[in-house]
Design goal:
alpha/beta, globular
Length: 284
């Protein structure tokens, strides 16, 4: 380009209106973690609405998936309504909450029918029998379930809960390793273990065994002053969980997949706020 042309071009640029600078920097887990939530969080807001419309509202709140319970939300009789609502709205049923170890195979089958990829499971802990017997029976039961899970292509994910069974990250890791199947892994609840542990330490020990996340907050000071369960009534990002440290451990295993909010229910504005808080704590 000749010198005179360069001068004209520069002048044109100088007289053009300045465009706003767009922040296009992605978060650490943008495109890697997809947001879901437990259906129980949206039930009250969705009262009186067709299920498909409620699903559309959840998408407008920023969620890509939903996880209903097989112990009260979805049944064999109403499964078609859930499938149709998902297809109509584009909201994915990414997983189900299957409850206890009884009826695992039936839960796997229904999860498969819904088009989901995993079923969350809570292991039973009968405290009237020896602990070693409970452990041995639970490992054997999950090995049996793994065969059906593999056949159906559904992961059975054991959650860390407050029933005082598998309350150490090392216990959970050992249990999963003894089952010895890629189809039985962990649904890692980032808040549950704060009663007796540290979230990022659990993430460190569990590593790739963590196939899905439950996202909630926990405030240790509130637990001490007002009671253990009240500590969950803390907005995401405002409690005792070291979210940057959790993200560091998740990055080490190159975590990708679903993260489901599991906090108290609320209206649509509240659910949109939960979604935005998930963006912050997970760096989406």
């Amino acid at each position: 380009m000749k010198r005179r042309s360069l001068i004209r071009a520069a002048a044109a640029l100088g007289s053009a209106p300045l465009l706003p600078v767009m922040n296009t920097q992605a978060g650490r887990f943008t495109g890697k973690i997809r947001k879901s939530l437990k259906w129980s969080m949206a039930q009250k807001a969705a009262e009186g609405m067709p299920l498909a419309d409620a699903f559309k509202k959840l998408r407008s709140c920023g969620f890509a998936g939903v996880e209903p319970s097989l112990l009260g939300h979805v049944t064999r009789e109403n499964a078609a309504e859930w499938i149709d609502a998902s297809a109509t709205s584009g909201l994915i049923i990414d997983g189900t909450v299957g409850g206890r170890t009884e009826g695992i195979e039936a839960g796997i089958d229904l999860t498969k029918r819904l088009g989901a990829e995993s079923m969350l499971l809570v292991l039973s802990y009968p405290q009237d029998q020896p602990l070693q017997k409970t452990w041995t029976e639970a490992v054997a039961r999950m090995k049996d379930a793994a065969t059906h899970a593999e056949k159906q292509g559904i992961k059975v994910l054991v959650e860390n809960v407050w029933n005082t069974f598998l309350i150490s990250a090392f216990d959970m890791a050992r249990f999963i390793d003894e089952v010895g199947s890629p189809w039985v892994q962990v649904h890692f609840d980032v808040g549950n273990m704060m009663r007796w542990g540290v979230a990022d330490h659990w993430a460190e020990v569990l590593g790739k065994r963590s196939q899905k996340l439950d996202v909630k907050e926990y405030d240790l000071t509130k637990a001490s002053n007002e009671g253990m369960h009240t500590a969950f009534d803390t907005p995401l990002g405002e409690g005792s969980i070291n979210w940057p440290a959790v993200r560091t451990e998740l990055a080490k295993i190159n975590y990708s997949g679903w993260a489901a909010a599991e906090v108290k229910a609320g209206d649509w504005d509240y659910l949109a706020d939960v979604s935005q808080r998930m963006d912050k704590v997970l760096d989406l």
